[in-house]
Amino acid sequence: MNSTIDIIKNRMSLRKYQNKPISKEHLDIIIESAMRAPTAGNMMLYSILIVEDEEKREKLSITCDNQSFIAKAPLVLIFLADMQRWYDYYNYCDVKEYCKRNQIEFRAPDEADLLLASSDAIIAAQNAVIAAESLGIGSCYIGDIMENYEVHKEMFNLPDKVFPIAMLCMGYYPLDIKRRIKPRFDRKYIVFNESYKRLKNKELEDMFKNRKVKENNKYNAKNFGQYFYARKTGADFAKEMSRSVKEALEFWKKEI
Amino acid sequence: MNSTIDIIKNRMSLRKYQNKPISKEHLDIIIESAMRAPTAGNMMLYSILIVEDEEKREKLSITCDNQSFIAKAPLVLIFLADMQRWYDYYNYCDVKEYCKRNQIEFRAPDEADLLLASSDAIIAAQNAVIAAESLGIGSCYIGDIMENYEVHKEMFNLPDKVFPIAMLCMGYYPLDIKRRIKPRFDRKYIVFNESYKRLKNKELEDMFKNRKVKENNKYNAKNFGQYFYARKTGADFAKEMSRSVKEALEFWKKEI
């Protein structure tokens, strides 16, 4: 179709990289591309942390569910949902006093602002992913950056109204890479016309027909659903993510 | 640099479209591109609603903060954070009973799952945006789809564990379009090395130096911060978004 569509269709999550740093020119293009992302009201409700320091990457490889390849990624980018900058500006502009004078409610950021700022951050992240891909630089999202909130807060000096919503590991594709494009679920179970369609058992069975589990598996699961629940949705890292996000929300929503 | 970077850098939010439908071929490419987006554990924690029905678009143009151009967009895509499909599958697989038998906690989706599923949905949405852009199709994000949760829930038949995190209006660029690429904040206030940098008053002043407000404005604001707070963060639509998201979370977290 065109080269952009080709890039999107051939992208894979890359967890092994050439052992060479991202060039300054390429890093600049990636960052500039992220910053061109659409953003609510042109507010840029996000910040980007460039992490190249080896010690920090080592630590992240542990705090983000023990994924050792993180330490070996030449470049790590953390995308932060960020309302702090705007609220600091509001403070600088005496908005609280202005609200009182004009009988407008002054409100701290809440769940909706977290979703909006996270959307901004993720849109920027995906621009970075596609820009990188077009330069021969592969990437892998690490949602686990949402875990261990207190550790990351201290590690990166994050104020209360800043939340790490996504992390990207990046590096040049190895020269001998074999692209493995993972199959997705069939479109008819993901895309609906005009109205949501809740799937019936027969459709769920068909949807998952290619996902199998061994009879003797370490989770004592009798089918793929049980196996996958144990491995993902009900796993320790998911529980930690759940705890961590709740904790982060306490700081996020704290009165200013 | 390359055509993908050019597409990213020249993209603008488009709110006026050619009065012609998106071709089936182009729609398919946009949907397939969205579905190639990276997704946590290959779970595809999102669904996509294709909305072409005129009446529905009319209604959305009202429920999403009265933006009349929504009704005139040839194509509307709603990106849904979706845990319903997986939990229906878990139910089909007797995961609750499996958990009891193996003394694993069975948990309903919570805030962390909403953030993870929303991330999946937004990554897919941004793939759709860039694919569309490469085909001469412009787009505009409508975060206001997070408002009026109850209305949209009924309108699109959304079950409890499905949340509309983003909407895209799409249409072909008008032939006489003048591209207006909005300036972003300076990189030094958005991108940080190794650690977050909280901005000082002097930096905030410099960051916002190009954003001005008229002396006599309808918000009775004395500076840009006050004006912008009244117009955005403290505005009625933001309060509605706040209420709506809280309400949605009640359904999202309800025990299964």
TrEMBL record, chains A, B:
Ranges for the Nitroreductase domain?
8-172
GO molecular function list: oxidoreductase activity
Highest taxon of source: Bacteria
Q: What is this protein's name?
A: Nitroreductase
**Keyword annotations from UniProtKB, A to Z:** Flavoprotein, FMN, NADP, Oxidoreductase
Question: Which InterPro entries does the record cross-reference, listed alphabetically?
Answer: Flavin_OxRdtase_Frp, Nitroreductase, Nitroreductase-like
UniProt similarity note: Belongs to the flavin oxidoreductase frp family.
